[in-house]
Amino acid sequence: MGEPWHRPCKITRNKGIITMPKITNLRDVYVEQLKDLYNAEQQLVKALPKMAKAATSPDLAQGFEEHLEQTKGHVNRLEEIFKKLDQKPSGKKCKAMEGLIKEGSETIEEDASDAAKDALLIAAAQRVEHYEIAGYGSVKTYADLLGESEAAELLSETLQEEKDTDEKLTEAAQTINAEAEKEGEEKDEEEPSAPRRR
Predict the structure, then answer these.
(1) Residue of 87, 77, 84 whose CA lies nearest to 37
(2) In the Cβ-directed half-sphere of 139, how many Cα atoms lie within 13 Å?
(3) Are strands 12-14 and 17-19 parallel, antiparallel or unpaired?
(4) Residue 97, number of CB atoms within 10 A of its CB
(5) pTM, 2 dp
(6) Torsions phi, psi for 141 (to 5 deg)
(7) Mean pLDDT per 10-residue interval, the chain, length 198 residues
(8) Spatial separation of the C-alpha atoms in residues 5 and 79, rounded to whole Å
(9) Cα(118)–Cα(100) distance, rounded to whole angstroms?
């Protein structure tokens, strides 16, 4: 593990606009991206219980609950990395995750059949997972290049867990999507045909 590193934290004001310190090297990028992921995980901790509650499939709801506990572990790992870097994890808002969670919230409010709602929830959850897989893949590479071997190991564990969750969601989708299709066919059969015009 390298020596504790401090990015200059001078904040200047230019015509009322707050300017953050310039990012000048890979270590700056590494810390900036870690902060982004930390905020993303914190947002997800708040969103997952809502997704679990909205799911009609007991297995899907349980999957969201299990990933909630896993996500709390991801937050702890990031805090451990920041502690060793002698950095504070706060100060970065992950707008990408904010947008993904907003879409997920809209999904929860959709007027949809049970299976269709679950299919929508899986799609929203997989968008989140793919974002996190990309993020953790990047910071793990940075950690390797910077010689942060302990951090790289922790990030690798989280990356694998995100990939595993994505695979579980894909497996769940195979059943739930088929159920949604079946519900659609049954609805079509129940609806009376429109009378022909003469």
Answers:
(1) 77
(2) 27
(3) antiparallel
(4) 22
(5) 0.82
(6) -65, -45
(7) 48 54 90 97 97 96 97 98 94 93 94 94 97 98 98 98 97 93 64 52
(8) 15
(9) 16
Report the alpha-carbon distance of residue 97 to residue 95 in Å, rounded.
5
Instruction: Report the sign of the C-alpha dihedral through residues 118, 122, 123, 125, in that order.
Output: positive
At which residue do the structure tokens 């992921």 appear? Answer: 37
Please answer whether residues 112 and 120 qualify as being in contact, where contact means their C-beta atoms are separated by less than 8 angstroms: yes
108: its two tokens: 């929860």
**What DSSP assignment string belongs to 160-196?**
HHHHHHHHHHHHHHHHHHHHHHHHHHHHHHHSPPPPP
Q: And the tokens for 88?
A: 């504070």
Q: Name beta bridge partners: 13.
A: 18
| Helix/strand/coil for 86 | coil
Q: Can you name the residues that pair with 17 across neighbouring β-strands?
A: 14
Q: Indicate the DSSP class of residue 25.
A: S
